[in-house]
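Practice problem 4.
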């Protein structure tokens, strides 16, 4: 299964009046991990966009188990579930010190610049094949 992990540090501006990380920041962290995964697969998002492919978010979900706080060192791991045609689903775990504090998912579709669904580019399919996802 293709996966990637990024690390970040909770900034003071990412916390709310309760002193915990505002929930919206987790989606930005998910994006950081997703971009890293595409880089690791050899299909950087910038290259996909340049070739006319976009990957908008269709759905997202989060489950918060425990809060993160200012200055926590957070790791975000993303895993690519087997994509089906033009859609793919990614799952995420957010942790501090090896403890999982949140879980989530995003679903995406490959679309063209007119936002019409398209099949993934051949380079993406080849990258998945190299990482054991078959063609």
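Answer key:
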């Amino acid at each position: 299964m293709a996966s990637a992990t990024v690390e970040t540090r909770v900034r003071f501006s990412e916390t709310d009046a309760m002193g915990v990380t505002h929930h919206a920041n987790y989606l930005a962290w998910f994006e950081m991990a997703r971009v890293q995964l595409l880089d690791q697969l050899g299909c950087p998002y910038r290259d996909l966009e340049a070739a006319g492919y976009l990957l908008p978010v269709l759905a997202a979900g989060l489950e918060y188990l425990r809060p993160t706080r200012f200055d926590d060192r957070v790791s975000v791991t993303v895993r690519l579930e087997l994509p089906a045609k033009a859609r793919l689903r990614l799952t995420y775990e957010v942790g501090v010190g090896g403890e999982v504090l949140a879980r989530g998912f995003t679903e995406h579709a490959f679309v063209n610049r007119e936002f019409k669904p398209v099949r993934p580019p051949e380079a993406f399919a080849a990258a998945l094949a190299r990482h054991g996802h078959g063609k």
